[in-house]
UniProtKB/TrEMBL annotation:
<comment type="function">
    <text>Catalyzes the attachment of tryptophan to tRNA(Trp) in a two-step reaction: tryptophan is first activated by ATP to form Trp-AMP and then transferred to the acceptor end of tRNA(Trp).</text>
</comment>
<comment type="similarity">
    <text>Belongs to the class-I aminoacyl-tRNA synthetase family.</text>
</comment>
<protein>
    <recommendedName>
        <fullName>Tryptophan--tRNA ligase, mitochondrial</fullName>
    </recommendedName>
</protein>
Length: 331
């Protein structure tokens, strides 16, 4: 049977890219009664300078948002990464199985390290922590957005390296990634980049918690081009195509249908239509986010139950790892 693991950073609130690229897939897998573990990976959120009270709030907001999106804790194990200490321990062990050149070539590291003068070591090794996250639960499948492909490849390499050195123990995980253009949602302001929580320009990112007014404003200001009709051509017209893609995904229509129905509209009119569709799709989610946020005790309960389940799996894996490596005196 498949064992599915994925994570999401509580760096900010969840955005449309996270939702359409990853979280929605998780809920679909859940519907198929798959074995799923989802982690709010807070230790990944401290690799860049951060504000502690904001991080704490973001953890709860992320939990509320995941529940609002349909993650069902009675079926899916939902927990906060730092409540299971074994993540750091396996990370340390995997650090000795990877090399600096391999980490230095990863595109996300290259992109982010450019934005800081003194690069934190955490930013450099965070893909190893990500591999530990996956391996701790012996996950066989990892549903992520296409931006994560290289990180999954590192996790595969580390599982193989561990198995080769210490004996077969970890499955080599498979990424569940949709390779088509549609799985990558782009920044509204810079459609050459993916939509991102840590975007310097918040107007490029639609958050699931945004009000209808904020959504209208952001889509209105989305960067398009000098052609006024609507067509889908991600290479030549990334801005408009990104809107078409978002529109198709939130309405469940095909790209062709969306483009066909927009034939009479110019870009400004089309943006209004996309805003309406996004607002409509997010309305019930936004209401549920607020409902869950108003019940912090419920969130704490759900996350504690999730941590307990996750911890049991993680402890079993780590006992075996320590024994294989000859660490400590027991086992
Ligand atoms: N723009 C995107 N389009 C499609 N999928 C995306 N994902 C992120 N951005 C897009 C997917 O969302 C999942 C959770 O992402 P994450 O928060 O763990 O890490 P990230 O990829 O680093 O996301 P951000 O929003 O860009 O955060 P920052 O700015 O902090 O780096 C992942 O499966 C990811 O693929």
């Amino acid at each position: 049977p498949r064992k599915i693991f994925s994570g999401i950073q509580p760096t900010g609130s969840m955005h449309l890219g996270n939702y359409l690229g990853a979280v929605r897939k998780w809920t679909e897998l859940q519907k198929k009664r798959e074995n799923i573990t989802i982690s709010i990976v807070d230790m990944h959120s401290i690799t860049m300078p951060h504000n502690p009270p904001t991080l704490r709030d973001n953890i709860f907001t992320m939990a509320a948002t995941l529940l609002a999106c349909g993650i069902d804790p009675s079926h899916t194990t939902l927990f906060v990464q730092s409540s299971v200490m074994e993540h750091s321990e396996l990370n340390w062990i995997l650090n000795s199985l990877t090399t600096m050149p391999r980490l230095a070539q990863l595109p996300q590291f290259k992109e982010k390290s450019r934005t800081v003068r003194d690069v934190p070591l955490g930013l450099f090794v965070y893909p190893v922590l990500q591999a530990a996250d996956i391996m701790l639960y012996k996950a066989t499948h990892v549903p992520v957005g296409s931006d994560q492909l290289q990180h999954i490849q590192l996790a595969q390499h580390l599982a193989r390296a561990f198995n080769a050195r210490y004996g077969d123990m970890f499955p080599v995980c498979n990424a569940i990634i949709e390779e088509n253009d549609g799985s990558r949602i782009l920044s509204l302001r810079e459609p050459s980049k993916k939509m991102s929580k840590s975007d310097q320009n918040p107007k490029g990112t639609i958050n699931l918690s945004d009000s209808p007014e904020q959504i209208i404003e952001k889509i209105k200001k989305a960067l398009t081009d000098f052609t006024s009709d609507i067509s889908y051509n991600p290479g030549m017209r990334p801005g408009v195509s990104n809107l078409v893609n978002i529109h198709a995904q939130v309405t469940g229509q095909s790209i062709d249908t969306v483009v066909e129905e927009a034939k009479q509209l110019d870009t400004a009119q089309y943006k209004e239509r996309v805003s309406e569709a996004v607002i409509e799709h997010l309305r019930p989610i936004r209401e549920m986010i607020n409902k869950h946020l108003n019940n912090r005790n419920e969130l704490i309960y759900v996350l504690e139950m999730g941590s307990e389940k996750a911890r049991k799996m993680a402890q079993t894996t780590m006992a075996e790892v320590r024994q294989r490596l000859g660490l400590g005196i027991s086992g």
